[in-house]
Amino acid sequence: MPIITCRDVALQFTNDQTPVLDQIQLDIQEGEFVSILGKSGSGKTTLLQLLGGLLSPTKGVIKVLGRTLTSPFDEITYVFQKPILLEWRNVLENVLIPLELKRKPNQDDIDKAYQVLSAVGLKQHVTKYPHELSGGMMSRVTLARAFLMEPKILLMDEPFSALDAMTKEQLHLVLLKLTQQFSTTTVFITHDITEATYLSDRVVLLGGYPAHVKQEFPVTFSRPRSKKLTFDSRFIATTKQLYDLIEGLEDDEKD
Amino acid sequence: MPIITCRDVALQFTNDQTPVLDQIQLDIQEGEFVSILGKSGSGKTTLLQLLGGLLSPTKGVIKVLGRTLTSPFDEITYVFQKPILLEWRNVLENVLIPLELKRKPNQDDIDKAYQVLSAVGLKQHVTKYPHELSGGMMSRVTLARAFLMEPKILLMDEPFSALDAMTKEQLHLVLLKLTQQFSTTTVFITHDITEATYLSDRVVLLGGYPAHVKQEFPVTFSRPRSKKLTFDSRFIATTKQLYDLIEGLEDDEKD
Amino acid sequence: MMKRTNIYSILLFVGILAAWEIVVRVKEISKIILPAPSAIGANLFQHFQSGYFYPHILATSIEVFGGFFVGAIFGIGLGFLVAQSKTVREILQPYIIASQAMPKLALAPLLVLWFGFGYTPKIVIVALVCFFPLFESTVTGLSHVSREKLALFHSLRATRTQTLWKLRFPTAMPYIFSGLRVAVVLSVVGAVISEFIGANKGLGALIIASQGMMDTTLMFSVFILLTLKGIILYQLVNWIEALFLKI
Amino acid sequence: MMKRTNIYSILLFVGILAAWEIVVRVKEISKIILPAPSAIGANLFQHFQSGYFYPHILATSIEVFGGFFVGAIFGIGLGFLVAQSKTVREILQPYIIASQAMPKLALAPLLVLWFGFGYTPKIVIVALVCFFPLFESTVTGLSHVSREKLALFHSLRATRTQTLWKLRFPTAMPYIFSGLRVAVVLSVVGAVISEFIGANKGLGALIIASQGMMDTTLMFSVFILLTLKGIILYQLVNWIEALFLKI
Amino acid sequence: EEEVQEVVNEEESSQEEVTTEFELEKIRMASWSQPITEQANLYLAEERGWFEEAAIDFEFIPGAGGGDAVRNIIAGNADIAFANVEAVLLALEQGEDLRIIYNIYPENVFNLISLKESNITSVEDLRGQDVGIYSRSSGTYQNLLVLLHQAGMTEDDVNLIETGVLNFGPLMNKQVVATAATDTGLFDAQRNELGEVDVIEVKDVLNTPADVFVVTEKTFQERKEALVRFLQVYRDSVAYTMEHPEEAAEVAVGAAIDGQDVERNIEIITIRNNTSTNEEIAEKGLGWLNLDILQEVEQTYYDLGLLSERVHVETITTNELVEQLN
Ligand SMILES: Nc1ncnc2c1ncn2[C@@H]1O[C@H](COP(=O)(O)OP(=O)(O)OP(=O)(O)O)[C@@H](O)[C@H]1O
Ligand SMILES: Nc1ncnc2c1ncn2[C@@H]1O[C@H](COP(=O)(O)OP(=O)(O)OP(=O)(O)O)[C@@H](O)[C@H]1O
Ligand SMILES: Cc1ncc(C[n+]2csc(CCO)c2C)c(N)n1
Ligand SMILES: [Mg+2]
Ligand SMILES: [Mg+2]
């Protein structure tokens, strides 16, 4: 049984606007890594927020772990597109927020937070406040915050878009390790086709007005995937294929 | 004579922290398109803000158009890393802000704003308010705002990082056309190496603690550059070269 | 249909009135100390019918509106000036704090001496009383703009005045309205207290007169009028705020 | 070295005092109407030396602190409650508006009657007066959290209480401090007015006594004491705010 | 209670034993004012321990006007009120059961003051002029009406102006031609260089007793004996203060809120000593109530419209307690 299912899901923000999403059908299996691609403004964030229980569908049903989703579940951790930090807390304190909401963090928690922060390359910056951080550093704080929770389901909205190639590669490894270790089900929005291919079991293409799942594209490279996979010709071919597919879909839509 | 020169520029945010930038030497010629690459948190934004007159160097001198820079110049338009919009103004009104600060916008200005908004793909969304926009749409509003000003010097901080591949390509064309038309001097921060190669006359690599210009990498493809250039083998080779260069520099720095 | 909470509200109100009436009747509390709600209602009705209240309501209204207007202009205006110019701020700082800290209502007797009788001293007091919360909230609001937006305006070479009008002012709006809500209520208090000191008309004068006549029932009636006046003004501010937010 | 603006401030002060002194002397203004600054200075000095002021300052301080404390607890507390529970908000809404709109200082004579003489009625009045700005600023502050942060907390399944303490409260802090500044100054006014109604001791009682003696000079001295008191309390709030921001 | 009385009589001189061995009976006196020098005899009595000697635990409850004093006894915040007659009449009109038991000041203290240069010599001269009063709830208003009434005028014939308590300011500022005030008010104004004035005294028209002690009917019935002890101390202290105004003046420095200046204290106390007695009182004894005058006052106020119905003040006024004093 899939861990996440969407049936005929539609979402309309205001009655006077056309729906943003309509007729969304989506099944995601436990432990699966699904990337969502789509043009800017197509409705990716909206879909992810629906999956996270942050928005409620206007039509249709979303089930997570067999239960109908009405508000966020404990098993789900959501990484927002724009890094959201509390200005009055430093990096470490920001990372500890979700834990604090569950229980008083103990020394172990703090040690683990340091580890995660170090994994995202912020070891030197734990005591900085948000206004002292660069854009990419802010994103990485929110990533550390998510990783620390070792979630069952991880929803990430363009988490690496503010990062340079090197840092991004490092974090790919961190993410893959984590999802492997906890067999985390991951839904991942990105604009980076190579990244989507490298990380995913399946790529979902969103498009149309209102947006729906235009195409699903399975990626079958075996796991664990090494960094070298990206230089593999099969990998490059797959990426190209995906790229062409997207371009084709886009051309259809031209007005 | 270069339009922008940095001599021995250093910047330190607080006295108790080590400087972020030191010994920055940089000359940028009129009409040149320079990209800045560097790891997240290396100091790219800091450097760009120095060039924009938004920060003042702790040491050294920055000259723009022969004048020492102390605060923003009229000839410079700056696009922030994080889209900054006024929530109480809709898309069109946000785009018109810089103009409004100069004079009362007339019908021509508004028509032009519509054109620019249409060029960035927001024609359908001019009356939306910031909270109704997707992340990429917000970035595009700030791009439209910058383009409308037809600036002499354009400083852009990761302007396309929130955009999908297709939209990004479209906007590359818009940007190249604009910079060509007004022989705009552009300094461009990006994490996308392909993008940097495609757009730039020169790529500047920032790195080290404190950061300085590690390497400058000229890109000599003739202009105008077509979309097809990116499939050219010479282009791919140059990109790979740049990628390797960066990786090499990074490895040096490993601690 | 009515909302459930509205029904609770009304029930609570009725309950309080009933309890009050019963306590007064059972304990035979003197009407000088605490008149029964029924007596107050009758008193209100009677005086409205006779037209007794109208000139007093009018007089207090003139003071409230006049003073509020003057106080708002000075409070918001000086708030802008202080937020605008660092020099002005630093020079005036101690005076502003002093003028804020001064118990202006206690000044009432002297103001009568200086400004003569009639509306002037009362309008001055109301204005003084309104000034402070408006000034405070204007300055607070104008200085609570995010760094990012200030950076944007800085990069656009916006002048100080442009930043003020196009950035700081819209940001300050909810703060200023919060200040207006406080000020409008205080202006009623200011008018009443200034009328305590010396006035032949106005709801405050009526309170003094009712005290002199030992007519506590009338005093309560006047309180109710004052409270209604406050509520109307308060809601007026809310309504104007809603109107502004819509634009 | 002193800042230039500080020097201007002081010069302005000296200038005002000098002009005042000259006007009073040249125009031979009666000391009942406007005493000279020199006379006020002498009066202050004399009464401080004789110890005349101390019990009055103490009495007013007790009322101010007691009332401020009670008012702050209720104002901020109820602000939290109302921000927290929609039901409570909707039921209490009309009462809160009414209680805010009511000119509480005008209630002073009745409160004295109900609560007897002594500190109680004065503390009640000060508390009532402080309540409103604190309540208003707490509610405003608690509801000015950005949607994004609320979304984050929603996604983290934070309870209402957690959102209140870890998100809304820190956001509301500057608003609450702004309310505290207004409240602390109003608390002095409240104490003085309540002492007008009937008190043996306190700076407000002293104002009434000075009026009875036609001793305008003493009245000015008391104003100055009250203003100083207000300034000290105001700066105390600023200082506590700075302390909080540091933590 | 009788026991207490006996013991007090026996051990009049050794107050310490009384306070340690016997319960003091609380008497709270609601005044129309703060503790001011005018009532210096009370502070003298406190200071000398005369209240303790009479087994009374005395407390001064301040107020802002005679109305406050009367309301405070009705509300139970005080046992006995030191209030002007007008306040009592108005409370009676509201249906309260009160008893007037002692005549504190048999003389009317109100007057009308004008600067000499304004040349106001009779009430008639006020016609059409601006005349100052404290407020419409003050004795200045009521007594000015009495003056006007006697001259066949009403308040519509003059332009009444509420000036607040600093009423001599507008007079000196020439914002009014005349102002209604009390004798002590006039004295203070003159200390502050008011200059030459004309004074029209209200007592020449209607000699309203300025202040009386008043209690609720309930207190009167239940605590007669304690009231007598209180009144005895009060009367004795007045008599003593008349003999030794400078001693009272000294005590007032510490006890009265406006008592800083001893010289002024003596003057004020002397003025109040004079209003505490007159020829008739000298004969009948301090505190004696003249029912005829009170009836005349009621009649006048009824005629003036200040009272809308008759309250029969003579029926609630009693010399019963005064007669028990020695
Ligand atoms: N206002 C500030 N105060 C203190 N330190 C700051 C401030 N702004 C930036 N820094 C520090 O300066 C360094 C460089 O920041 P900068 O924003 O220039 O990085 P960047 O290269 O733009 O990174 P990114 O790609 O993530 O945007 C970082 O270590 C950051 O913590
Ligand atoms: N709160 C809202 N109210 C009204 N419309 C909204 C709201 N949020 C988003 N939209 C609209 O819904 C559409 C989809 O937005 P969404 O944020 O899902 O896009 P996206 O695919 O995530 O884009 P991007 O890649 O730019 O982040 C857009 O047209 C946007 O204007
Ligand atoms: C000696 C003496 N002087 C002044 C007053 C004050 N006073 C006189 S009438 C009045 C109005 C109260 O209703 C007040 C306050 C007094 N009682 N006794
Ligand atoms: Mg999005
Ligand atoms: Mg940056």
Q: Can you walk me through this structure?
A:
The complex is a heteropentamer, with 2 copies of chain A (255 residues), 2 copies of chain C (247 residues) and 1 copy of chain E (326 residues). By secondary structure, chain A is α/β, with parallel strands linked by helices. Chain A has 7 helices and 10 strands. Chain A has a 6-stranded mixed beta sheet, sandwiched between helices. In chain A, a hairpin with a 4-residue loop joins strand 9 and strand 10. The relative contact order of chain A is 0.16. The model of chain A has no long low-confidence stretch (mean pLDDT 89). Chain C is an all-alpha fold and 247 residues long. The radius of gyration of chain C is 22 Å and the shape is globular. Chain C starts with a helix and ends with a helix. The mean pLDDT of chain C is 87. In chain E, the strands form 2 sheets. Chain E has a 5-stranded mixed beta sheet with strand order 2-1-3-10-4, sandwiched between helices. Chain E has a 5-stranded mixed beta sheet with strand order 7-6-8-5-9. Chain E has 326 residues and is of the alpha/beta class. In chain E, helix 7 links the parallel strand 6 and strand 7. Chain E starts with a helix and ends with a helix. In chain E, helix 9 runs antiparallel to helix 13 and helix 11 packs across helix 12. Helix content of chain E is 47%, strand content 17%. Classes of the chains: A alpha/beta (255), C mainly alpha (247), E alpha/beta (326). The site of the ligand Cc1ncc(C[n+]2csc(CCO)c2C)c(N)n1 has 15 residues of chain E, from helix 5 and helix 6.
